[in-house]
Amino acid sequence: MLVFNKLFNNIERFLFVFLCIILLWSPIPLGSNRIWSAALLELLIAALFCMWLLTINGNPLAKALTQNKKIIILFFLIPLWSALQLVPLPPDVLNIVSPQVSHYYENSQAWHSISLDTGATLYKLQKSVAYALFFVLSLALINTPKRLENVANLIVVSGVLQAVYGVLTVLGGEAFDIFHIHDGRQSSTTGTFINRNHLAGYLEMSIAVGVGLLVTHIIQNKDDYAGLRASIRNFVFTLLSGKARLRVFLALMVVALVLSHSRMGNTAFFASLGLCGVVGLWIYRKSHKAKSLAILFISLIAIDMLILGSWFGLDQLAARLEGTTVEGDGRFFVFQRSLVLLQDFWLTGSGAGSFYNTFMSYRDNHSYLFFDFAHNDFLQIAIEYGMIGFALFGLIVLYSFIRAIQAQQQRQTAILKGAGFAAMMGIMSLMIHSSSDFNLQIPANALLFTLLCAFACIAHSMEQQEHHKKKKRLTETSKP
What we know:
It is a single chain. By secondary structure, the protein is mainly α. The chain has 19 helices and no strands. The radius of gyration is 24 Å and the shape is globular. The protein starts with a helix and ends with a helix.
């Protein structure tokens, strides 16, 4: 029996490492936003899920799995709805659920599916299944506070790698572009992504996870004022600790975010930091760490905006924001025409992934350029999935956001509170950014957003247990 338990623990540890490798790999091949890289990502997730299934026979499931069945069902209802969009329907039924579809087919009396682009819908269906499987794997394998913190640190490291690579390719030129992604004339950081807005979306979520770790460190710190010498000693220890290293990592990511010159990306980050800081202070208002957290949020805004921003071009970004006009932004005209498209397919959608082909019939003189996405995740999801699918996405986000707040209110373990804050800030930031970009259409960003939703559920459902570092500190202080 002991040998079996040891073998099971080793296998589960291997699966957890496999999960971390998937997370670290996903943004590297152009955000996995190519057919081959997306297929590889889906294959890795499917392989991991199959291996995990072989280990659950007779073994207890993680508490996060058993307590979050509703959101798991919601995740799987999305690919189910995509599959239903592919099912051919009789003309009479199709005219009721989606009257405009018949106009796209020559033979209106034949059976047709709701989707106007079955190939794209099948492609999107595969992605949706992969995200749902990854969500389940996250709940199952991130089953201890230590693992939760390890994954959070991994996301920060991934964000730092993206930030460093992006900054070096902008400041150092082609010599640092080892992946040969850019043309040497790049003035904005994009990391290993093609679009700077997608790097901004990835960094927003990575920074949110880093801020959550800072919140964890503050809550963990039980040291009160014990005199000048003790304060100086604690300050020196802080400079040499992981907390200072984490703060440097956050600064690097903020620099890259500013240099991305993504208007909505930076707006979403600073807005979510301010709003979530206010919410966090309200949640922890009765805690003895309220003052420390207030100093943290104020210092983050002050340092990131006033110091880093002035050095690395926040004033230029502000000028871009001031110079933004409706007439000069082609995305506004796409938004206008997309609203007309939504009116025609508001209930059941035009089919997951079908926006590009469907939008071709709705373009006008202002939106004649190449647009394969609506540049608004909310609008594109509503067009492709209809209000039925849009409601599923909305329920997932709402459920996760509420879980994140509840975790901060109800849990006593530091990392669970920090993970709750990270999920809350990351979800809010990407939702703001999604109003003018399509980060949820990029596999790496969608996968990280799925992980943040899992963070919220894990933090809320995981057993209240002392953090491993806290346990170690208590053990050391109890020794004679």
